[in-house]
């Protein structure tokens, strides 16, 4: 997490410098360094201490990284923070604003916080400024709404990282028997408000006393004999509860939730004359619980099989469990391929070979290379000739690789008019055609839906990727008539993607449920632009599980030949 913390600080420094109208070169250096740190999986400070040179990080920035890792703060940043009104740093984060406009609004209209900006946009005072149109005001208001909705929400991938780091440290605290993640992180919600961790220890208060010293802990919010609430350096709230091992299972059910699921459990218990709480399942007037140590025992006490956390949302899982009809949820081990992988040919950071090796090491049998198509200049989209040369390279690699196959694919842009960004003569040569919307997000629902339906009807399109286009915390999904997309997908035998990239997780669980009901198949692709991102597959599997999907619903659980066959029908 240290890298991410420094990346945040560098990002904020760049914003402040830009608002101050500082030298563009300095601003860019901070932005580049921030990006680089975000994408470096190894601890950057440790690399520097070991004498490694990090490309794009000069001597000055390297010293700052070391200072932060030593002291937990950065002197220059603390000073800079007070150089501009604090509200400007909130404004700069609104989607569609950025540093240049933040400076413009402040310089010309004296706008120094989000409330003032909202007022000004409502009263149409912004459009008097150079470069601000009526539409811009609308977008800014939407951006403010998005920020309010998403404020305080944490991406699941980040929550996982924090939870793993804390659990690792907890395992070293004397007296700790075991720990588990609970709450919405365990239910694999795409974003969460806080992180819940449950610890088993014979003497809870002794463990609680050790927790303020956790590396992740920046501040204690509240502390009791069995619970501590803390805030991490990035400002995320974490609740840690310590219970005796004898009631770990009951506590885990209780703190995993969801609240709606727990209400149903309590009703079931009540009907059997039992009481269920975080300490166990109790018969009337008895102090010893009937069940408490394991989750299985707790569910069994109310005559249910164990229910996977991802399903615990009161979305029909109680009825399915009672009838013995719970789905056999897909697991990460069922996945045989990654169907959405980028390489250096477009905007990926690594070679096709490196991506293949990384995926094979993770147990995959094949992958689909899906670099961008020609009109996506911003992502260095491939011209048809590039694509053909890439296919040559893939053929060569396939001769060399053992027990792994690379499929030739492309992430082909769906143009504003609903056409594909390559001629049929090009598409015909590909093993897999992925279609995607990357522009014109603001078209009206009818037009966007029609545009996608038209692409699905194209005979060569196999998979619609990131179908709703949402970016968590930045952009809501585009306006779509999802029913129509589903019926077109079924009619044309086109699969829909669960994009496992942490900011997308698109489709979500509810969409997956609808797709399954409509008889539409899914694939899970990581959209990896780097070998480290291949690990995101697990996030996609979590979404599929929330949607009640089984291996049979997900095409990349099939061996390669069968996968291709399915796509061709
Ligand atoms: Zn894309
Ligand atoms: Zn992609």
Please give a structural write-up.
The strands form four sheets. Strands 10-11-12-13-14-15-16 form a seven-stranded parallel beta sheet. Strands 2-4-7-6-5 form a five-stranded mixed beta sheet, sandwiched between helices. A two-stranded antiparallel ribbon has the order 1-3. The chain is 43% helix and 15% strand. It is globular. It has helices at residues 2-19, 24-38, 44-49, 59-71, 75-81, 86-91, 98-109, 114-122, 134-150, 156-170, 183-186, 204-210, 248-256, 259-271, 295-301, 317-322, 352-361, 384-400, 424-427, 445-456, 482-492, 509-517, 537-546, 560-568, and strands at 154-155, 176-182, 191-192, 195-201, 217-223, 227-232, 237-243, 274-277, 280-283, 337-341, 366-372, 405-413, 432-436, 463-464, 495-499, 522-525. It is of the alpha/beta class and 569 residues long. It has four domains: 2-150, DNA polymerase beta, N-terminal domain-like (DNA polymerase, domain 1, Orthogonal Bundle), CATH 1.10.150.110; 154-243, 2-Layer Sandwich (Beta Polymerase, domain 2), CATH 3.30.460.10; 257-322, 2-Layer Sandwich (Beta Polymerase, domain 3); 332-568, TIM Barrel (Alpha-Beta Barrel), CATH 3.20.20. Helix 1 packs antiparallel against helix 2. Helix 20 (445-456) links the parallel strand 13 (432-436) and strand 14. The structure holds zinc ion (ZN) (2 copies).
Helices and strands, with pairings:
Elements: H1 2-19, H2 24-38, H3 44-49, H4 59-71, H5 75-81, H6 86-91, H7 98-109, H8 114-122, H9 134-150, E1 154-155, H10 156-170, E2 176-182, H11 183-186, E3 191-192, E4 195-201, H12 204-210, E5 217-223, E6 227-232, E7 237-243, H13 248-256, H14 259-271, E8 274-277, E9 280-283, H15 295-301, H16 317-322, E10 337-341, H17 352-361, E11 366-372, H18 384-400, E12 405-413, H19 424-427, E13 432-436, H20 445-456, E14 463-464, H21 482-492, E15 495-499, H22 509-517, E16 522-525, H23 537-546, H24 560-568
Parallel strand pairs: 4-7, 10-11, 11-12, 12-13, 13-14, 14-15, 15-16
Antiparallel strand pairs: 1-3, 2-4, 5-6, 6-7, 8-9
Helix pairs in contact: 1-2, 1-7, 8-9, 13-15, 20-21, 22-23
The structure holds zinc ion (2 copies).
């Amino acid at each position: 997490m240290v890298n991410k913390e420094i990346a945040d600080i560098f990002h904020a420094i760049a914003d402040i410098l830009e608002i101050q109208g500082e030298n563009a070169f300095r601003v860019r250096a901070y932005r580049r360094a921030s990006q680089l740190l975000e994408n470096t999986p190894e601890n950057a400070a440790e690399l520097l201490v070991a004498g490694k040179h990090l490309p794009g990080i000069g001597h000055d920035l390297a010293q700052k990284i070391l200072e932060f890792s030593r002291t937990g703060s950065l002197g220059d940043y603390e000073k800079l923070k007070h150089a501009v009104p604090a509200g400007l740093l909130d404004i700069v984060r609104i989607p569609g604003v950025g540093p240049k406009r933040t400076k413009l609004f402040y310089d010309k209209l004296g706008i120094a916080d989000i409330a003032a900006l909202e007022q000004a946009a409502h009263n149409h005072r912004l459009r008097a400024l150079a470069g601000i149109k009526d539409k811009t005001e609308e977008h800014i208001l939407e951006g403010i709404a998005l920020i309010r909705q998403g404020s305080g929400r944490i991406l699941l991938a980040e929550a996982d990282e924090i939870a793993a780091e804390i659990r690792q440290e907890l395992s070293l605290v004397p007296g700790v028997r075991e720990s588990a993640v609970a709450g919405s992180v365990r239910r694999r919600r795409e974003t969460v408000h806080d992180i819940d961790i449950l610890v088993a220890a014979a003497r809870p208060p002794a463990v609680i006393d050790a927790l303020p010293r956790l590396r992740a802990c920046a501040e204690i919010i509240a502390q009791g004999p069995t619970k501590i609430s803390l805030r991490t350096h990035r400002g995320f709230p974490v609740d840690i509860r310590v219970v005796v091992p004898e009631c770990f299972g009951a506590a885990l059910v209780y703190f995993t939730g969801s609240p709606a699921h727990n209400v149903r459990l309590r009703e079931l218990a009540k009907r059997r004359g039992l009481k269920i709480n975080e300490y166990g399942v109790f018969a009337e007037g008895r102090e010893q619980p009937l069940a408490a140590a394991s989750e299985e025992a707790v569910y069994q006490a109310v005559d249910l099989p164990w229910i996977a956390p991802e399903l615990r949302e009161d979305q029909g899982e109680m009825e399915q469990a009672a009838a013995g009809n719970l789905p056999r949820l897909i697991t990460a081990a069922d996945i045989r391929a990654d169907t959405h992988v980028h390489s250096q040919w477009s905007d990926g950071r690594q070679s096709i070979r490196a991506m293949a090796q990384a995926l094979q090491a993770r147990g995959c049998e094949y992958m689909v290379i899906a670099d961008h198509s020609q009109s996506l200049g911003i992502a260095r989209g491939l011209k048809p000739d590039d694509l053909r040369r890439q296919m040559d390279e893939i053929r060569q690699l396939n001769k060399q690789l053992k027990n792994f196959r690379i499929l030739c694919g492309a992430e082909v842009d769906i143009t504003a008019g609903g056409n594909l960004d390559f001629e049929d003569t090009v598409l015909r040569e590909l093993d897999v055609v992925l279609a995607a919307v990357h522009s014109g997000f603001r078209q009206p629902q009818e037009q966007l839906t029609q545009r996608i339906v038209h692409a699905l009807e194209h005979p060569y399109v196999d998979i619609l990727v990131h179908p709703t286009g949402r970016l968590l915390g930045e952009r809501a999904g585009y306006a779509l008539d999802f029913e129509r997309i589903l019926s077109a997908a079924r009619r044309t035998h086109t699969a829909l993607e669960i994009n496992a990239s942490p900011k997308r997780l698109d489709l979500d669980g509810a969409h997956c449920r609808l797709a399954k009901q409509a008889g539409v198949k899914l694939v899970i692709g990581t959209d990896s632009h780097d070998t480290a991102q291949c690990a995101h597959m697990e996030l996609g599997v979590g979404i599929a599980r929330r949607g009640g999907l089984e291996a049979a619903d997900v095409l990349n659980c099939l061996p390669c030949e069968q996968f291709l066959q399915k796509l061709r029908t």
